[in-house]
């Protein structure tokens, strides 16, 4: 089933930037150890962290740390909204490469997309550092041809994949754990 995607999987595994559809907008994605490539391509400010996207919650929990009570609260939020368009910003564990959040805030945004294609790719590549497919400050690109034209060095899935799975076009809702509650940083596709 994933045979048409082998080129993208191999590119991601070799540390190249790739693009694939999600349930919101198409993503640019790269190995979490190679994040400088995305910052360079997007002309993105280093004070804007990337999101770690995984195929399942279990792929992501090792990248964050908290008390047992906090972890239970986070798990409950994930159970309600994942897979889906909700990004949880949580205290980062020592496993997180510094390039995921160069500003050094000690947090990490994590998400499991509600998109079968993205989940299948991520289940093979492992979690990837992601952001929307666009130059910083510009609207997200929605079509494979536009992404390929804007980012010629990025491996992009075939155009028909994007046509069949365009995503909502809305960004994910972003919530941060404050230590005793959730704070909405960006209201997006998920209403909280």
From TrEMBL:
The name this protein carries in UniProt is L-threonylcarbamoyladenylate synthase
Query: To which protein family does this belong?
Result: Belongs to the SUA5 family.
Main location group: cytoplasm
The superkingdom of the source organism is: Bacteria
Q: Which reaction does it catalyse?
A: L-threonine + hydrogencarbonate + ATP = L-threonylcarbamoyladenylate + diphosphate + H2O
Q: Which residues form the YrdC-like domain?
A: 2-190
Species name: Phormidium yuhuli AB48
PROSITE patterns membership? YRDC
EC class name: transferase
Pfam families, sorted: Sua5_yciO_yrdC
Keyword terms, alphabetized: ATP-binding, Cytoplasm, Nucleotide-binding, Nucleotidyltransferase, Transferase, tRNA processing
Could you tell me the EC number(s) of this protein? 2.7.7.87
Localization recorded for this chain is: Cytoplasm
**Record carries keyword Signal:** no
């Amino acid at each position: 089933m994933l045979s048409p995607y082998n080129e993208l999987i191999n590119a991601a595994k070799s540390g190249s930037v790739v693009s694939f559809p999600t349930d919101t907008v198409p993503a640019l994605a790269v190995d979490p150890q190679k994040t400088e490539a995305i910052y360079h391509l997007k002309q993105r400010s280093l004070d804007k962290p990337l999101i770690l996207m995984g195929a399942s919650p279990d792929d992501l929990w090792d990248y964050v740390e908290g008390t047992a009570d906090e972890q239970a609260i986070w798990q409950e939020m994930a159970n309600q909204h994942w897979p889906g368009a909700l990004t949880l910003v949580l205290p980062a564990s020592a496993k997180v490469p510094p390039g995921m959040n160069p500003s050094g805030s000690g947090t990490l945004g994590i998400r499991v997309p509600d998109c079968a294609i993205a989940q299948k790719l991520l289940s093979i590549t492992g979690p990837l550092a992601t952001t929307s497919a666009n130059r910083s400050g510009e609207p997200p690109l929605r079509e494979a041809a536009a992404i390929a034209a804007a980012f010629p060095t990025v491996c992009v899935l075939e155009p028909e994949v994007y046509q069949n799975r365009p995503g909502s076009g809305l960004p994910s809702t972003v919530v941060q754990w404050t230590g005793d509650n959730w704070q909405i940083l960006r209201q997006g596709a998920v209403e909280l």
